[in-house]
Amino acid sequence: MAERSEETLLEKIAEKIHAVHDSSSSDSDDEKPKLSDSSLKPKIYRLFGREKPVHQVLGGGKPADLFLWRDKKASAAVLGGATAIWVLFELMEYHLLTLVCHSLILSLAVLFLWSNATTFINKSPPHIPQVIIPEDLAVNIALSLRFEINRSISALRDIASGRDLKAFLAVCSCSKCLFFRGIYIHTKFFYVFNI
């Protein structure tokens, strides 16, 4: 009964709104859109005034599924991986370069043992692709790097020899600003972690 009265109330409100539009508008009746049943349904009010569901706000697809834990295995794997990285780098104070070197040593040892063990178990050895860097690519990278280094050294030489006063003053002022910024950050860091 209450649901029926809500529907009739919504219909009456919709009719009054359209009656106001009909009297104030000079448009013809055939240009006006027809009301559908979906426009009479009450609007869904979501948290923080959102118009779309959270899944659509996050972009939909797999990233949204990960954030909303719809794919529980993948979300747990991401959370576990992030926790392992945090434990390695923060709690154990492991460094990235050390991790890269140890993983390279481990992978090299596994490939070496695998290729030697294949002779005993009559299996084919692992296929390791041969990687060759083209000479022209290496030469182009070296030439562009050499050009940028020479240009930087030339600019520093011009500044140090006194030929470019504007650049000298700009470098000095930027260095001074960075110096004070470093002192400010250092003292903030010192006070936060030593008090």
Automatic annotation (TrEMBL):
Q: Principal place where this protein is found?
A: endoplasmic reticulum
Recite the UniProt keywords alphabetically: Endoplasmic reticulum, Membrane, Transmembrane, Transmembrane helix
Gene Ontology cellular-component terms for this entry are:
endoplasmic reticulum membrane
Which is a GO BP term held by this UniProt record?
response to bacterium
Q: Which domain of life is it from?
A: Eukaryota
Subcellular location as annotated: Endoplasmic reticulum membrane
Q: Where is the Reticulon domain?
A: 63-171
Q: Transmembrane stretches, by residue range? A: 95-114
InterPro entries cross-referenced by the UniProt entry = Reticulon (IPR003388), Reticulon-like (IPR045064)
Residue span of region Disordered? 17-37
UniProt topology in membrane: Multi-pass membrane protein
Query: Is Transmembrane tagged as a keyword?
Result: yes
Q: What is the name of this protein?
A: Reticulon-like protein
The taxonomy runs: Eukaryota, Viridiplantae, Streptophyta, Embryophyta, Tracheophyta
Gene symbol here is RTNLB3
